[in-house]
Amino acid sequence: MQTEVHVFALSISASVLLSVFPFLIVMMSLCKYGLHWPAGVQALDLALTDFFPGEIGQFIHRNLMAVVQSRGPFQITSLFLLSFTANGVFEPLEVALNRVWGFRNNRSYLGNQLIALGLAFACGSLALLSVALTAGNVAVLKTVLHGYGAWYVRLAGFVSMKICAIAASITIFFLIYWLLPNGKVSPRRVLLPAVILGLLSELLKYAYILALPRLNFGEVYGPFAISVSLMIWAFLSGMLLLTGAHLSAQKSLRDL
């Protein structure tokens, strides 16, 4: 409930707004043109529409496919832009986590850029691994459930995607809590909070989906409604992440 927590979360949400689309362009271009992997494209479509609530996911998916098809092969420009914009997400996060854990000194600018690039690469790799596992499971299920109806395959594919996505979210939370603070953090101290936050983030997403029609962003923000919806979703996710870090640090301090 402190003021600086809201400032950090707003900074994180603005950086997410800048980085999410270049990141998705890179992922989709890599699956479609780099790996020539139709199953990966389908799994990424499913994960995209599931991860982003309601109309946000539909809007991003529609425009993402239009951009990827119009620009063609893998975009070096998007990768270059991502390398800078993704750093903006981890920069305020490091300062916030240092404050939470009581570490007085932040990393140097260069040090922060290096750890941010490493975490961005790790998160991208986890996302791609999640897509690969989902695509592989769906391919196996199509063979095993052949003749039982398409809805069996769709349901099994959704469950498989959900399990992979939650596992990836938990791992991302864990890596952020463990590696981003500029000090020594015990992995076992942040494992349970990462698991809890990975599950809570799913509940938060569905609560946001239910709340979106009642928020009427279109009446207030007009053509910026989708951007505002995405930014508020990122703000809520940032608040959730910082809450988990705070509870983890407080428990560790009590144990000491």
The secondary structure category is mainly alpha
Major β-sheet annotation: none
Q: Strand tally, please?
A: 0
Q: Which residues sit in consecutive blocks of at least 5 with pLDDT less than 50?
A: none
Strand content is under 5%
Following the backbone from N to C, one meets helices and strands in this order, namely HHHHHHHHH
The radius of gyration is: 19 Å
Number of continuous helical runs: 9
Average pLDDT metric? 77
Q: How far apart are the first and last residues' alpha carbons, in Å? A: 25 Å
Shape: globular
The number of domains: 1
Task: Describe this protein's structure.
This protein is an all-alpha fold. It has one domain. 86% of the residues lie in helices and 0% in strands. The protein has 9 helices and no strands. Helix 1 (3-34) packs antiparallel against helix 2 (38-51) and helix 1 (3-34) packs across helix 3 (54-71). The longest helix has 36 residues, at 109-144. It is globular and about 55 Å long. The two termini are 25 Å apart.
